[in-house]
Specification:
mainly alpha, 11% strand, transmembrane helix, membrane, Peptidase M56 domain-containing protein, transmembrane
Amino acid sequence: MILVVNKYLLGKGFKGVSIWPFVIVKYAWLKDDRLFINHERIHLRQQLELLLIFFYIWYFAEFFIRLLKYKSTYKAYRNISFEREAYKMESDSQYLNRRRFWAFLNYL
């Protein structure tokens, strides 16, 4: 994981984004936020499992399906399986040590 701090690369409302092998954060203090970093590390693992390109295809397809369902960008985002897994498990610092392959499927 390579941490990059750059407030200009992220849009309004975004604190960070994972684009393997980088985690881009808007503010330097986020580098020390254990929950935030663990959340992004979970996304890095998800990306590797889906060979990057398939992660992004799935992520955006699921976002648009959820957007049709919830009619809210925030609700659509929060209900993407990748996000549901990352938010639920971000407080567990040992999660990635025992996480099963394609565990995000449990959050569909």
